[in-house]
Amino acid sequence: MRPQSLISRRVAAAAVSLVLAGGAAACAGPQSGEDTKDKGGNAVGAPGKPQKGGTLTILNAEPQSDFDPARLYTSGGGNIPSLVFRTLTTRNRENGAEGTKVVPDLATDTGRPNADATEWTYTLKDGLKFEDGTPITTADIKYGIERSFAAELSGGAPYLRDWLVGGEKYQGPYKDKKGLDSIVIPDAKTIVFKLRKPEGDFPFVATQTQFVPVPKAKDTGVKYEEHPISSGPYRVVSNKNDGERLSLERNPHWDPKTDEERKAYPDKVEVYSGLDSAVINQRLSTSAGPDSAAVTTDTNLGPAELAQIGSDKALADRVGTGHFGFTTYLAFNPKVKPFDNIKLRQAISYAVNRTSVVNAAGGSTLAEPATTFLPEQKVFGYTPYDHFPAGPSGNAQKAKELLKEAGYPDGITVTLTHSTQQNRQTSPEVATAVQQGLAAAGITVKLQGLENGAFNEARWDVKKTPGFFISRWGADWPSGGPFLAPIFDGRQIVTNGSNYNHAQLNDPAVNKEIDEINKLTDQSAAAQRWGALDRKIGEQALDVPLFHPVYKRLVGKSVKNVVISDWTGVLDVSQVSVK
Fold first, then answer.
1. With bands split at pLDDT 50, 70 and 90, how would you rate the model's confidence at 160?
2. Cα-Cα-Cα-Cα dihedral sign, residues 134, 137, 141, 144
């Protein structure tokens, strides 16, 4: 997953930064006039029935750059791309766990697999049109996928390169006019994908922007991002400074009868980016003028802001709470001594003071302590376990006993590498909290802080990976597969690029189980297997889960119909009303 505020790269991509692939018809979001509630059961946003009209303002810190479906990553830019782009499938636009389901979008269902899930077939709905009124066909979807393979349009999720037959060699339509034989279009409404191996999670991948239809005649290559052709409820009017200032207005050829997910209440959407986070939250709090109809898709509230809001009920009623599949953890590289000693890894696992770590991450309102690698959501396959019960503040006595068994009766000094970026996840404050907790058990921790770019380079380079460091992982969709496979599948160890299997675990039994689960198209059955695998891997003490983040975001005082799913953890801009 991509290492950014929420989300996922090679599942960050191979995600930071999820669910039941069924054939059920798309479910609508909250019904008109229904109060939207956060995970605590509290109503969020302005009361009253949502109405069409008005202008939605989005205030963000990060620009919505690379606004080309080939270059966008699943979680990038919050929900903004889904206002313009539609895909074969999409996420269910509902609150909480219901929002982790895959539902049809351009397709009539979530996909029809063959017996071993190596082939998936989709049929397009009737009446689909681009912003210029021309019909959307499967040829447009095939071309949109193929152009995502072009080197000049890199940046999107990598799954299709790994999954499609011939995908690893294909260079895109600008170099290879023939196209991918593994994407078959028998007719204008049918498309078939032929995979190298079983992939029960394919309906989740079909939600990604690489599946956005692109008319070949309108493709302008690297300039396409300036005016991509809309298949969704809004079209791009202007795109300035690579997404820093983005203006959207209604697409007159979008038919809501073909789209049960996007409500598209506002007439216009104005995106302002490159803003300071404190300024964003202050503007949302004050809600003056256009800011009363404003939201953010990338800026969280901090501890100090939450403390201030807590004493103001009117403001508190405008704070939405979100959960995204994400884990911050201590990572070990057993190839580096002394971390090849499992007794030492176990000692560290017992010594961690999670209360101090959670406080360093913003407190219990913004972080939930973790003892499992998988997030605490059923859809991932969450199975409770705590192989090294440290309690809230660490078990120093048990850690000392294991240190003695490891050959360090007088304690040991180790180095913990972390990022110097203030992100409340791998920050110096979190590192210091770990340091203090381990000190009680006789483990002296020297902190090595690296600038974020250097930190990522170190932890992802298999030749440079430190023996002990703080890492984080988020899934590109709500399933155990994109959470566990990149971190623990030995075949995903990358020796000449970004490697996420920090422990370099290459256990044939683990690899085989991953393959077996990937064959399952019953996501409930798959989730149970992912949870069991997480529990089994956890016995090896290859990591120490620390916490799962919680997202708290403020909306303007006129914003209604706040929907926050467990897929993204943030407000869904396709659902809000500002009148």
1. very high
2. negative
| Three-state helix/strand/coil letters over 485-537 | HHHHCHHHCCCCCCCCCCCCCCCHHHHHHHHHHHCCCCHHHHHHHHHHHHHHH
**Between residues 146 and 38, the one the model is more confident about:** 146
Of the candidates 266, 291, 167, the residue with the CA atom closest to the CA atom of residue 577: 266
Token pair belonging to 152: 């000049």
Domains and CATH numbers, the chain: 10-269 (3.40.190.10), 326-551 (3.10.105.10)
**532 contact partners, CB below 8 Å, separation of at least 6:** 381, 383
pLDDT (average), residues 104-132: 98
**DSSP-derived secondary structure letter, 14:** -
- Using alpha carbons, select from 150, 130, 155 the residue that is nearest to residue 214: 130
Given a contact cutoff of 8 angstroms between Cβ atoms, the answer to whether 334 and 561 are in contact is no
CA 103, 108, 109, 112: dihedral to nearest 10 degrees? Answer: -150
3 has pLDDT over 80:
no
Backbone angles phi, psi at 158, to 5 degrees: -95, 5
Dihedral class, residue 57 (left if φ above 0, else alpha if ψ from -120 to 50, else beta): beta
For residues 236-272, b (16+ Cβ closer than 10 Å) or e, as one string?
beebeeebbbbbbbbbebbeeebbbbbbbbbbbbbbb
Quickly state the pLDDT bin for 32 (edges 50, 70, 90): very low
Question: Taking residues 419-438, what's their average pLDDT?
Answer: 88
Distance (Å, whole) CA 475 – CA 471: 14
For residue range 491-527, list pLDDT tens digits in order. 999 988 889 999 999 999 999 999 999 999 999 999 9
- DSSP bridge pairs for 58: 271, 295
Q: What is the pTM of this model?
A: 0.89
| 176-182 LR contacts (CB < 8 Å, sep 24+) | 179/142, 179/143, 179/146, 180/142, 180/145, 180/146, 180/149
Alpha carbons 437 and 512: distance in angstroms, whole number:
37
Separation CA 157–CA 205 (nearest Å)? 9
* 155 torsion bin: left (phi>0), alpha (psi -120 to 50), beta (else): left
Which string of DSSP letters, residue by residue, matches 287-327? --GGGGGEE-SS----HHHHHHHTT-HHHHTTEEEEE-SEE
The yes-or-no verdict on residue 405 having pLDDT over 50 is yes
